[in-house]
Amino acid sequence: MVSAVLWCLPFVLSFIGSLAQPQTTANTINLGSSMTAGTNSSWRSPSGDFAFGFYRLVNGQFLVGIWFDNIPGRTLVWSANRDDPARAGSTINFTLDGRLGLTHSNGTGYLIYNGTFGASSALMQDDGNFVVKTNSSKVIWQSFDSPTNTILLGQVLVMGQKLYSNANGTIDYSTGQYMLELQMDGNVVMSAYKFADPGYWYTATKDNKNVSLIFNQSTAFMYVVNQTSIAYPMTRQVPTPIGDYYHRAMINDHGTLQQFVHRKENGSGWTVVWEPENIKAEPCIPFNICGVYGFCTSIDNTTINCTCLPGYSPRDPSIPSKGCYPATAIDFCAPNSSASNFSLEEIENADFPNGDFADMARITPVDVEACGKAIMDDCFAVAGVLVESVCYKKRTPLLNARRSFPSTSNIVAFIKIPKANNNPPIQDKDDDSPSWIALLAGLLLCSTMTLLFATITICHHPLAQPYISQKQLPVPKPVDINLKAFSFQELLQATNGLRNKLGRGAFGTVYSGVLTLAAEEVEIAVKKLEKGQNSLESLAQ
């Protein structure tokens, strides 16, 4: 018995000693830690549900981000450098002085946390929040305070915080055109902020104090709360039990806030459990969803289809939301332009809805014919719509064109099209076919090379050498002659018999005259030497 106790004693002492040491988890990130892009390393949460590190993009670049790490596709939920992706070889550094930052492969840096409050460790938590702590475990920085396009279960958005959509789904994670904002007046608004859109969805919680958007960790419901109660309920139903699912909510690149669930075991993908009712009923509601001069349609009110308005072509066929451009240059109010240069096309059950003060003019009451004529007669109007008996003239650029039932039912839209461009071919601007400028440049180059080759061949031909070798001396201009001998008779004739006396010098008298040299008259001065002065001096004068 005694021997058994003695045998166990070292293990007991070892266990007691371990209790006396400061406790750190295996997932704690210590000062001096780092990782390099392209090495497939990451800092994982204790459960392994989330990871922090370099998230590889489809183009081979990397975002410093947080993602779900236990599901196919590893859905990204946060990033620090969405508008400045890193390349392979870049590093994430948790420095010895407590700063967390990204160092690009070219040496430039970006601070995620500046180390102001004396960090001692960091941790990727199981709720998807990456935190930096002091040695007393106080959180001094967390990713939940700077969300990108996503909120997670248990996360709270407060007044002044915003979510920004991606530019293009999972292809381009840079900042897109849509924003969800908890305004300082208490209203929660979604808008196409790049176009000064006042908002296409809002909670109408204005004038509430201390408003927050909560993603409740216990119920997985989202709602807007004020100081005392729920001001705006959002989620109505989610699958249970809550713990069997991953949860997230995101504003997508189509401008819709959606709440998703994904079963943890044998899950087949993300399922939408909530989205705003007005957008769910009409997906083309988000402002300018198909870009400038784009046209949004939704036949089934489930999916959207982006095309171009008549007379316009897509900027990028692979990304319809980038909008369209005129197939030919259009100057509606040029001095030589008139209504006869354009045709007017009607689009049934369509609208170009703008803000209250964005329309050029409103005319009432009118019918379809009168509205169309008013648009054609106004060179500044590029389009218009007839809603009941009100005609709204539209200016360029055309935004937010859509056909969406029932909101655009019985609305007639009009658009001006240059007659030479009624049916423009839809082609990519980056088409490989040569333009007329490139063709002209090629012909000019070929002609120049042909002429140069012919000239060199002729110059080196034996029959041409006798003619080339006969060099013709240039004929000097009379005024360029500096020294020339004249007879006394020529000078006497030029000075009219030495009658025009100019003055007298040291050795003789000076007379003026005119010489005719190669059909050009040149004024001269002639000194008649009286004391044997050198004739060259006399001529020069």
TrEMBL record:
Bulb-type lectin domain location: 28-145
UniProt-listed Pfam families: B_lectin (PF01453), S_locus_glycop (PF00954)
Protein name from the UniProt record: SERINE/THREONINE-PROTEIN KINASE
Cited SMART domains: B_lectin
Chain residues that bind ATP: K528
Domain EGF-like as annotated: residue spans: 280-318
Region forming the signal peptide: 1-20
GO biological process: recognition of pollen
Gene Ontology MF annotations: ATP binding; kinase activity
Highest taxon, organism lineage: Eukaryota
Sorted UniProt keywords: ATP-binding, Disulfide bond, EGF-like domain, Glycoprotein, Kinase, Nucleotide-binding, Signal, Transferase
